[in-house]
Amino acid sequence: MIEQRIQELKAVIAGNDGRNAADFRFARAVDELVRAVYDDIGEIRLISSRALFDLFVIKVLYVGRRSSHAGVIEYLGAMLDRYLAARELFPVGPDGKMHRLYFSEILDDEKRAQYFRDRYEAYRAYADSALFLSGIFPSTLQRRRPGSKTALRRRAAPLVDRAYYVSTGKTMYRLAAGNGAADDAQGRDTLTRLAEHFELYVDALNEMSERYIMGVDAGVIADHMLDSLNRVRATHDKAALDAARRYAALLDIDASRLRPERTAEEGY
After folding, report:
1. Cα→Cα distances 258→68, 108, 244, 267, Å
2. pTM of model > 0.70
3. For the purposes of burial, counting CB atoms within 10 Å of the CB of 72, is it exposed (0-12), middle (13-18) or buried (19 or more)?
4. pLDDT bucket at 211, cuts 50 / 70 / 90
5. Over the stretch 81-97, which tens digit does the pLDDT of each residue have?
6. Helices within the chain (DSSP H only)
């Protein structure tokens, strides 16, 4: 049911490509789906990772930042889902191991050929990983060791931080958009938009990471906790109290203070 409703939202976005259709009803539908993801905290919901990423992208980018390009929404959902498998994040070299390649190495024909079939694939893969890392794991890019020397770089590069990936990621998306293979693959317009508004997408993914991937949406969790406590007050249901305590734990609230003998006014 949730996945079907997410697909309906994506159909609205696709049908209004170039214009943001996130009116009050649309935004409310998105919020209801986000809340539904956190329903029944003691039960594992069978929702595909792709559907969840699509929902979160719609929430933070389409609703939250008024994006209007359906291709970017689709692209980001697919990229996030693909990178759930860590092996997809970095290219595999001749030695069978994953390698994090730097900007200059992608531009080096000899080096690039060891990892990618063509320039387009290399440009897009680098840009995707730069967007993913700076968007989902920004804290890991605060302090990184300098890049090594290469044929095109006589000295080691300065620290590889978030700004480095933003700058080089924008450039790589632009190069991918200018490659002839773009029209047959991800689409020149989508790649161009990713290049032009890279910082906006990083910001949206930062919010997504903080609220939904590396953390939780505190507002939604608090609402569920209060709903559970109201059910306890009305029905004295132990399952509702257990759920309230689990929600409280997610908010770092001392769940031991939620006691069934207390009334709402005394501590619930």
Report:
1. 44, 61, 8, 7
2. yes
3. buried
4. confident
5. 999 877 778 888 888 88
6. 2-15, 24-37, 49-57, 70-82, 103-107, 109-112, 119-136, 162-177, 188-196, 198-208, 218-235, 238-250
